[in-house]
Amino acid sequence: MNIEDVIGLYDGFHFGDELRMLNRYASEVTEGVIVAIGSYRGQTDIALALNAQVPVYCIDNRSGSIGEDYPFGDADRVEWMKNVLAFGVGAKVRPINLLSKEVAEVWYLEIGMLFIDGSHDYDSVMSDLSSWVPHVLDNGLIALHDVGNETAPGVDEALKRWSKILTPLDRANITAIYKGEFYGGNY
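RE: above sequence
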């Protein structure tokens, strides 16, 4: 399987250029682990894991995002597992079905790449950034979904608060990747 197969998994859910970009950057992570917040049915998780050299932790409490029209729930967990297994990345991914903030409170692994696509309201994005950035390696990657998306203004509002330590690196459609510059924990 390749990234083009992943793109075809759910037509119109994520843009092909976004998934290609995430796949490319994830394949270059050699230190720490990759953490993805928000999984739905696994399309981005698979894109991240397909060529990854490190484990990919997929965090989603399966209750959906504020303002989303998609019905989230236990059925998505089954579809997620089917997709992960069909794409042969079951040995690379580690699902965690809890709230992101709860997981971050007990997290101990260094993160080479963090992908945030959980709830898109300002408070949720700020919580995800505040909870997870301390675990990201200096010069680690932070990717956010729905950047510049007028239906999710909370993402851009939160990014303004973090702009001093997040250097824009790349962007495809509404997903942007930043290099984190945390030197000395100043976040």
